[in-house]
Amino acid sequence: LCHSSMKDTMPPIRSxxxxxxxxxxxxxxxxxxxxxxxxxxxxxxxxxxxLNYQNPHLNIFYRGQLQDHRRxxxxxxxxxxxxxxxxxxxxxxxxxxxxxxxSDRLKEYLRQLEHDRTMGGRSASKDLEVFxxxxxxxxxxxxxxxxxxxxxxxxxxxxxxxxxxxxxxAADALTGGYIYLVGLPIITGHITYMPYDGIVMVKLEAxxxxxxxxxxxxxxxxxxxLPHTPKTSQYRARDVAQRLIGKxxxxxxxxxxxxxLRPVAREMMMPTGDPLExxxxxxxxxxxxxxxx
Length: 293
Description:
alpha+beta; 4-stranded mixed beta sheet; 4-stranded antiparallel beta sheet; 10 strands; 34% helix
């Protein structure tokens, strides 16, 4: 691969919203500016529909968060979990020892599931050996740090994650979270490598076995940079915010949802009794890391 990071290869993006905003902006400007406030789901849909219309060259994915994490310069950041440490030693240990061990343990479990499964069909063993991202996608989705970042093709799911405290019943969670729109090239398979852009994408449902419950409710994808590196000096180049085309803030979660449209229930997005979640948590407990939150 000829590129060392996720590249800012997007042409200037058309970023609607409001008479006082320039229609043509870079992702850097989007990341540095305040988020666009949205009061209702209908407002959110209109903004997203406009951005999709104005940027037909991009495939737009979404990420919902409770907080807008920012760098020292004030710009929003969407950094994969495995790049959040500033310690070179922690990074080296994690990438060269801990993450490979966790991946190997998970592969053993997935092979056993495949062997025990009575139904016929696809064997994922080749994917597990050839594409490390297929294993990382599962680890990352269950909160184990990897070089990949969770995103979704569903605006409804992203908005539900951005208000997850509110619809879980938290009394002080009226203020909603943030929804990020990430512009990516068109994907071509369940694992797509885009070396010109320095991007890899994994379709989560295709990576996870049917025993997994969470991934099949979230329309999830994972995105990361190519190639992967533990060098902390190059972490900013792994920031998915380099593909940011929109940043929205839900003003009031109670007013955002209504009787006609409710958030996806937390129990559906993160169901209990998921055997794969239990296995990943056990693996992480057996191989602890400074990267774990």
